[in-house]
Design goal:
This protein has 188 residues and is α+β, with helices and mostly antiparallel strands. The chain is built from 4 helices and 4 strands. It has a domain of 90 residues. It is 43% helix and 11% strand. The strands form 2 sheets. Strands 1-2 form a two-stranded antiparallel ribbon.
Length: 188
Amino acid sequence: MPPKTTRIKTEAVAVSVPATDQEAAEYIAALSAHQRELRLLGAAADEQKAAVERDYLAAAQPHQDEINKKFKGLGIYCEANRERLTQGGKIKSVDFGHGLVAWRLRPTSVRVSSVAMVIELLKKLNLTRFVRVKEEVDKEAILKEPDAVKNVSGLTFSQVEDFVVKPYETDVEVVLERKVEPEAPHAA
């Protein structure tokens, strides 16, 4: 029994199509006008967002200041009483009724300040087991010599063509992408 194929239907969109070069020019002018309106609406929205954020920050700051003070004070208290609170290090968290305080030891991490210097030193000390070599497909080289890899399965070549409308007044491009499948591998 062949596998069931699911088909997805897309709704047809009714659009008007310019009939002449003059109408095409009018479409571009209309695009420009709509883009200008969108930009104005966006600017107004940005101003409103900025005003709301300023109001929020002004109202939130006293609360944040109090949170910071209480957190620091609690940290000083708990650190001064850590031995008693953790029962000599036997427990890592303490329940105060309204919440917990805990001490967590993060996993050890390694920071490398100069990668090239550390790699060179590890190699000199014959510690190459600590140097990772990363292999990856060189896509740029494949695009330069597509015929050399035409029989390699797992490689596909694709290309996208853009249809671009760029009204002069707004200098904002409207782009429609269309995937183009090359007939055979070729250099881009």
